[in-house]
Amino acid sequence: MATYDASLTIYYRGELIGEAVASELLQATSDPAEQVRWATLLQLETETKVWLRPLLVARGLGIAEGAQARAMAEQMVAPMRGLGWRVQMESQFRLIGEDALPLYAGLVADAHARGRPDEIAVCEHMFAHENAQLEWVRRELEGADVAACVEPMARLLEHPLAWP
Predict the structure, then answer these.
(1) In the 8-state DSSP scheme, what is residue 80?
(2) In Å, how far are 54, 70, 73, 112, 159 from 49, measured between CA atoms?
(3) How far apart are CA 104 and CA 39, in angstroms?
(4) How far, CA to CA in Å, does 94 sit from each of 19, 88, 90, 99?
(5) pTM
(6) Is 119 in contact with 145 (CB distance < 8 Å)?
(7) What gap in Å lies between CA 137 and CA 100, rounded to an integer?
(8) Within a 10 A sphere around the Cβ of 114, how many other Cβ atoms?
(9) What is the pLDDT of residue 83?
(10) DSSP structure class, residue 32
(11) 36, 55, 69, 130: which could form a disulfide with 16 (CB 3.0–4.6 Å)?
(12) What does the pLDDT profile of the chain (164 residues) look like in tens digits?
């Protein structure tokens, strides 16, 4: 069973990497619709990272953003550059659905086993955060329009992006 400290560390690392990946893919596209999508994900990852920081600091855990997360993000992005949108989304669907969500579901179960409501709330929030990303990708693969695709992520934003 993962400790709460381990869960927070996993979440924070995921946000650092997710933010770097979204930023790299945003920078790599000139398509306005793709820019909206990646920028929305970038905003979600950034806001969630900032939300997690006080939780980590309160427990004496580190929040420094070392080069390791950027390097890992670059390894993840490199094979995606130049691929079509659908292939990128299929890759994201597998990554989130097969790796991240099962991991986060386990962390939620661990929090429930510890029985601390504050920890459960954080872990469930992070599961919902990841699930919103999976819903975004699912909608992309179904061919929904931009607004419908980013809606699951946008509804979690405290500071939504305003598009012209």
Answers:
(1) G
(2) 10, 14, 15, 23, 13
(3) 23
(4) 18, 10, 6, 7
(5) 0.94
(6) no
(7) 14
(8) 14
(9) 85
(10) H
(11) 69
(12) 999 999 999 999 999 999 999 999 999 999 999 999 999 999 999 999 999 999 999 999 999 988 887 788 788 888 888 788 999 999 999 999 999 999 999 999 999 999 999 999 999 999 999 999 999 999 999 999 999 999 999 999 999 998 77
Q: What separation in angstroms does the CA of 68 have from each of 61, 65, 72, 137? A: 17, 8, 6, 26
All domains of the chain, ordered by start, with CATH? 4-154 (1.20.1260)
List the structure tokens of 23: 């930023």
End-to-end CA distance of the chain: 47
Q: Given the structure tokens 């929030």, which residue do they identify?
A: 125
Residue with tokens 């390791």: 68
